[in-house]
Amino acid sequence: MQYEDNFTEYFENYEEDEPPEFYLSNAQIVSLVLHGIAFLLGVPGNAIVIWIMGFKWDKTVTSLWFLNLAIADLIFVLFLPLYIAYVALGFHWPFGSWLCKANSFIALFNMFASVFFLTAISLDRYVHLIHPAFSYKHRTLKNTLFLVLTIWILATVIGSPALYFRDTLTLPNNITICYNNFHPSDLDLIILRHHVLTWVRFICGYLFPLLTMIVCYSLLISQVKKSAILTSSRLFWTVLVVVFVFFVCWTPYHIFSILELSAHHNNYLHGLLRDAIPLSVGFAFINSCLNPILYVLLSKKLPSCFRVTFSELVKHTLWEVSQSGTVSEQVWNSISLQPYEAPGTEITPSERSLVPTEDA
Questions:
Q1: Those residues with Cβ within 8 angstroms of residue 49's Cβ, 6 or more apart along the chain or in another chain
Q2: Which of 22, 105, 123, 334 has the most Cβ atoms closer than 10 angstroms to its Cβ?
Q3: What is the pairing mode between strands 176-180 and 166-170?
Q4: What is the average per-residue pLDDT within 106-122?
């Protein structure tokens, strides 16, 4: 007996206990359009960011964070055509079991990597501005590369259950679906595994990062004596907007994923979830193409956008972000370092010039 419960998990938008439908609902069509937009805009947009940050400029701590955020998004959008084809074919998966596993894994991998990099950027902002002495000693390219590698490994580990549970099933009418094979027959084990993976994904990929970022920015706003210095920073607003958009895009997906846990015992939810899950997934995945667009919208050169190219607008904002050691942060660093001066000593102007800026 094959698993026949009706919950969608990540890409599942199909009721396995009913005959497959060969027409797409309005929600599925909208989801398909969102995925197409994410692919068409996400590939060139993230490629531009990677080219600028990875090959055109010297590496800084901040540029490493944004570079890896773009890499995570680009890896994901390159796999989107597989899912687009899956939906367009009426949820028939002709690509085999391994690509079923890989496609689902890449989606989860992208979600965790993106939110972990955004969390790291927020923590980096907090440490750099609130604990300058610690930042001066430990905020180095070598340590940042180590943290980047740790995030990639962590995202791989947390997303890896998809490589084990994701599977294909060919129905009697020769329709092949890509679904979560938690167990062939044990319903209790199926429900347990579904609950565990959903809550791990919610806590690690949403709740904990969200709370961490809220705490970081709350402390930044409350503890920075000259808030005008902070809020005038291009980097501050860029990060804040990117973080806000990420959670706006992913919140519906996590809400319906948790609601989906009740579908095992509540058949009335099936109709709602059949429409809500595709929309929430499409809305979440559109986030992978938005960051380059946000960089353009945040660019000071936007009013003259008709005279410059998209890549030049992106480059201008990224340059402001990566160079946001800025006079304002240098002033704040010089103020913040004063409590760390030993009694009877004084930091000379030449020594103060060695205080780390954003390019450290």
A1: 66, 67, 70, 291, 292, 295, 314, 318
A2: 105
A3: antiparallel
A4: 91
